[in-house]
Write a sequence for this structure.
């Protein structure tokens, strides 16, 4: 072989080896799901005075081992009833009494598969008409995580209020 050919071959092999070294690191495995939430997407739609409630959700799922995940939910909701508008005892504003991920396509009511730690005994009171909240370290069993990740749009997130116990905002999950 000619010396120039050997040099080109050596440089090609070297640059191929460099590509391996410079390749991006393996992804961390964190999956982010998002949703645009509204009262109109609820089935049936949220009723007045919370009918115009809307917001957004970001749900980060981090592998926890064995196929299970932990999830963090950050949601922002606006249009909730402000304090002093409702009759007693609800006069402190909209009260969020539950939050879940449900199985179900758009327009379909489905069973909850992943509850958030919100309840009638541990509600979220929104005296300012809106809420920005993060709830972290929600355990997601392996079977539930697998199903959600396989078909995110077949699942929805919603919040339930004292005035709209069937749901005040809802949105289908979208993998980002």
């Amino acid at each position: 072989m000619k010396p120039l050919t050997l040099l080109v071959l050596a440089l090609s092999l070297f640059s191929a080896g460099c590509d391996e070294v410079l390749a991006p690191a393996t992804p961390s495995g964190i999956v982010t799901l998002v949703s645009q939430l509204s009262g109109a997407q609820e089935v049936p739609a949220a009723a007045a005075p919370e009918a115009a409630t809307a917001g957004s959700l970001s749900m980060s799922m981090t592998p926890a081992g064995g196929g299970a995940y932990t999830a963090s939910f950050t949601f922002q909701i606006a249009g909730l009833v402000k304090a002093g508008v409702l009759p007693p005892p609800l006069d402190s504003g909209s009260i969020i009494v539950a939050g879940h991920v449900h199985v179900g396509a758009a327009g379909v009511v489905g069973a909850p598969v992943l509850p958030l730690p919100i309840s009638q005994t541990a509600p979220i009171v929104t005296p300012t008409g809106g809420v920005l909240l993060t709830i972290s370290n929600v355990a997601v069993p392996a079977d539930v995580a697998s199903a959600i990740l396989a078909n995110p749009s077949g699942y929805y997130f919603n919040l339930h209020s004292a005035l709209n116990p069937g749901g005040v905002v809802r949105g289908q999950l979208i993998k980002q």
The two ends are 52 Å apart (CA to CA). Helices lie at 3-22, 142-150. Residues 28-175 form a domain with the Immunoglobulin-like fold (CATH 2.60.40). The chain has one domain: 28-175.
